[in-house]
Amino acid sequence: MDRLDRIILAHGGGGVLMRDLIRDVIAAPLANDALAQLGDSAILPVAQPNSAGRPATGEGARATGRIAFTTDTYVVQPVFFRGGDIGRLAVAGTVNDLAVVGAAPLALSLGFILEEGLPIADLRRIVASIRDTADEAGVRVVTGDTKVVGAGAADGIFINTSGIGVVPDGIDLGPSRITPGDAVLVNGGIAQHGVAILSEREGLAFETPVASDAAPLNGLIAACLAAGEVHFMRDATRGGLAAVLNEMAQDGGLTVEIDERAVPVDPAVAGACDLLGLDPFTVANEGKVVVVCAASDADSVLAAMRAHEQGRAAAVIGRVTEGHRLQTTGGTPTERTAGGTPESGRVVLRTVFGGARTLEMPYGEDLPRIC
Amino acid sequence: MDRLDRIILAHGGGGVLMRDLIRDVIAAPLANDALAQLGDSAILPVAQPNSAGRPATGEGARATGRIAFTTDTYVVQPVFFRGGDIGRLAVAGTVNDLAVVGAAPLALSLGFILEEGLPIADLRRIVASIRDTADEAGVRVVTGDTKVVGAGAADGIFINTSGIGVVPDGIDLGPSRITPGDAVLVNGGIAQHGVAILSEREGLAFETPVASDAAPLNGLIAACLAAGEVHFMRDATRGGLAAVLNEMAQDGGLTVEIDERAVPVDPAVAGACDLLGLDPFTVANEGKVVVVCAASDADSVLAAMRAHEQGRAAAVIGRVTEGHRLQTTGGTPTERTAGGTPESGRVVLRTVFGGARTLEMPYGEDLPRIC
After folding, report:
1. Cβ pair B180, B323 in contact under 8 A
2. What's the complex ipTM?
3. β-strand B289-293 against B347-350: which pairing, if any?
């Protein structure tokens, strides 16, 4: 990355290049424990301010609750597409980032960058979609900001939505909770959003049109949490399922084994991917969550997903394998640490042909402005 | 506004046109009580979620604290300027939006839109400035997002910062708290930021160069709150002092009288405004706050400001006049309602020549991308 001295499109692709940029150029200088986690949302203990008017945080705080806080900017092109629009994405994506850390979404902010010349009718349509999606998720937009830039200085409309949520007592999710033997589930067919956007952009017409899966998943996720012992969740957006599984394996220092045949891919999506030369594992989703839970609860969590509108095609797609947790340098090996192996922190795909290959972290996705 | 069917630059200027766009096109469809206030930050009661996992909010909530939540997007051009850069603005502006509602800033989010081709050295410099300004304000960046768009689809770098803060018990600020007789203060010379940006943009060199006033004001504001009975605060950004005073007068339904001679304007800024044909009252600031407090506490609040780095040139600039609160339609007039007068909700400027004129709300500022 040091050889690159300018931003390139692949820096935004959700892969290795983006992760390195964020770690080295952005997170390192700002270093603090909350940011270093690079999670979907930061989780902050919040206490009433002390007499000096400064809120106490951290271990010494008289915690009165945990607040989840997240941000996402949406630059999707085109802004209207089959199955959604930039407004629906902006609400669903941020709600999902809150939900996957176990938070009940409380409120959203809305920051617009509008390009001179944007039809106000488009803005109205997008705001209506924001309202409808917020209603669907049961969350409110409580604050906002609007900036206008000259023609040519932006591209129609960009939207930032940040969100806050409340993490109930007792919720404890994270890559460190992932345990060998855990089951890995996904709530339905992958790659729909990326294929829908690309079809729209390229003017492709498939026999069975593919619609984006953009949807708020907080209802489905709450049902999963109630149904069993969930250890980790992450929504699969840029970089697709491959990026989430690799992040999970690397952050947890474990191996994740995925059964390719078990991964739901709608036939129309599979056909479109074949035609377009795309790997469904690296194509973006906007309504898919990977859930890791105790193996003994896999059936009940799966049933909870399938009972939900956004989880009809849910499936158990793999498991976390034992004994491959990376040895922490300098630390005392825990019971779960069986020493590093060449497979630690990797995703192994058991293919339809009975073989096995590594499912790589994407480098820099080929599809800019997918979300 | 109905005659305009496309976004124009003036929609972003902080004046009447922007206010109408936000009210009619954005806030109305999303209608809820928190958003309707159009305050600098939304203030939300936060309680632990009930057993269904949904946080209780509103009057029925078992409130465990009040969280302030705000968002701001920064599109300033050029990104580096005398006295600051887009990173300093992005931290200071959002910290100030939290501070003026009485919140102690707790955490910021950081959303980047990067244009393909942006030098990574520029990004590093901006991130360093974000870190330094966050340290100055005593706040942490805890979560972020990075998007990349193709060359020509943005303009270098846009930054959204959202922020959350904790509102201490007992704090109650707002336009409805403004009382006839209250004193109006500002913490120093106005119009510096706008003049600094315009000088940079136009390549103007003044004898005494003007630097932006961009600065986090949470320290100064906490000192004001401790020094006296503060009723209302707002930072004067786009639309300048004129916009804040008019918003305040309109939202409070009162008349605000300003003594033109008392308003601090640095001589270099006044000279530049003369030369450029700008009215300092409508030029943007990024480190100025208007504070309305009980008349009896004006001296102590002024002293608290002047004791602070960002308040050396603070001044009492006017007062709220009695008896001009607008009559609420259909409501029962309160004690403070003396019936509408032609001056209700207006800002009256007592000029240097001893006359009086209305200080109008700016329509749509002439300086796009000032912040």
Report:
1. yes
2. 0.90
3. unpaired
Nearest to A71 among B116, B128, B160 (CB): B160
Q: Where are the beta strands (DSSP E) in A79-212?
A: 80-81, 84-85, 104-115, 140-149, 157-167, 183-186
A/B interface, count of CB pairs below 8 Å: 326
Domain A175-358 bears CATH identifier 3.40.50.300: no
**DSSP symbol at B208:** S
Task: Name the pLDDT band for B3 (thresholds 50, 70, 90).
Answer: low
pLDDT digits (tens, 9 = 90+) for A127-163: 999 999 999 999 999 999 999 999 999 999 999 999 9
Q: Which of A54, A144, A149 sits opposite B104 (nearest CB)?
A: A54
Residue B65 has pLDDT above 90, yes or no: no
Q: Is the link from the previous residue into B78 a cis peptide, with omega within 30 of 0? A: yes
Burial class (CB in 10 A: 0-12, 13-18, 19+), A132: middle
pTM for the model: 0.90
CB B85 within 8 A of CB B215: no
Beta strands in A168-281 (DSSP E): 183-186, 230-235, 255-259
B215/chain A closest Cα distance in angstroms: 18
Residues 6+ apart with CB under 8 A from A52: none
Helix or strand or coil: residue B292? strand
Residue A327 φ then ψ, to 5°: -70, 130
pLDDT at B307 over 70: yes
**What does the domain layout of chain B look like in residue ranges?**
175-358
The mean pLDDT of chain A is: 88
Helix/strand/coil percent split, chain B, to 5: 30, 25, 45
Q: Indicate whether B340 pLDDT > 50.
A: no
Subunit contact A150:B6, Cβ cutoff 8 A: no
Torsion, Cα A343 A349 A353 A355, to 10 degrees, reads 0
For residue B330, how many other CB atoms are within 10 A of its CB? 5
Q: Residues with Cβ < 8 Å from B128, sequence gap 6 or more?
A: A29, B87
Sign of torsion over alpha carbons B45, B46, B48, B51: positive
Largest separation between any pair of C-alpha atoms in chain A: 66
